[in-house]
């Protein structure tokens, strides 16, 4: 464990130094690049940002939202690649049977399929899901919203674990989500439903109080 912490400290320190000139938006930039092109150590960096703001709830939440937004907007690159390449592009990377399975998923529940893919950690083929969504004609607005919500859920789970157990837990995020994906998604959905109910309650209470 001490070795893991030492490696993590050197690793995250180098990334922080590189992102320092971007300030608060460093995590946005990294998430954008991760989704748009190069695979980056996203969980480790988001976890380190959140851990640095563990005593500041709004700042930590800001990092989560910026990372989720960067990932969603960066995914636009894959969307337009998928739109242009269509199913011919999928055939270069996937077997026909797998393409059919992917098509059925998107035909039945495109939003949930992409949302869940956005929560899954590596080595899940996230970019293949992005290209598939575009190739199967998912609306761009729904595409962005599914990724945004999925990434918020993923980074919120990561934040809770990092604040509770320390930033080195980010390296175990993949196995945690793979082994407890149903529970993680259930917690996310329950939390989202709670927030939605709270917002609706506030909105309905405003006319009565005015």
Write the layout of secondary structure elements.
Blueprint lengths: L1 H18 L6 H11 L5 H11 L4 H18 L1 H16 L4 H24 L6 H10 L4 H26 L7 H7 L1 H29 L1
Model description:
This protein is mainly α. It has one domain. Helix 2 packs parallel to helix 4. The N and C termini lie far apart (57 Å). The N terminus is likely disordered.
- The total count of strands amounts to 0
How much of the residues is beta strand, in percent? under 5%
Largest sheet, strands/sense/barrel? none
Low-confidence stretches: 1-9
Helix and strand element order? HHHHHHHHHH
- Report the end-to-end length measured between terminal Cα atoms: 57 Å
Q: What integer is the average pLDDT?
A: 76
> Which range best describes the helical content: under 10%, 10-25%, 25-40%, 40-55%, 55-70% or over 70%?
over 70%
Our Rg estimate from Cα atoms comes to 18 Å
Number of helices: 10
Number of individual domains? 1
The geometry reads as elongated
Give the structural class: mainly alpha
Keywords, separated by commas or semicolons:
elongated; 81% helix; 10 helices; mainly alpha; 210 residues; disordered N terminus
Task: Summarize the entry for a quick read.
The chain has one domain (2-179). The protein has ten helices and no strands.
